[in-house]
From TrEMBL:
Function statement: Part of the twin-arginine translocation (Tat) system that transports large folded proteins containing a characteristic twin-arginine motif in their signal peptide across membranes. TatA could form the protein-conducting channel of the Tat system.
Organism: Bizionia sediminis
Protein's UniProt name: Sec-independent protein translocase protein TatA
InterPro entries listed in its UniProt record: TatA/B/E, TatA/E
TM region(s), chain numbering: 6-26
Length: 61
């Protein structure tokens, strides 16, 4: 394994630790709101990238 790939090797214990830390920092009631915002941000990004692709194709034609 390369030295650069080492930080990307996340196992189940690391994921569990991250989940526990997030729960402690934000609380159980705030997490669904955070995930909803993250999901809408990803959706907007995908829509913008699709629109960019359409603009690129229209310029080529």
């Amino acid at each position: 394994m390369s030295l650069y790939m080492l930080p990307l090797a996340i196992g189940p214990w690391q994921i569990a630790l991250i989940v526990v830390i997030v729960l402690l920092l934000f609380g159980g009631k705030k997490i669904p709101e955070l995930m909803r915002g993250l999901g809408s941000g990803i959706k907007e990004f995908k829509d913008a990238s699709k629109e960019e692709d359409k603009d690129e194709k229209a310029k080529k034609e």
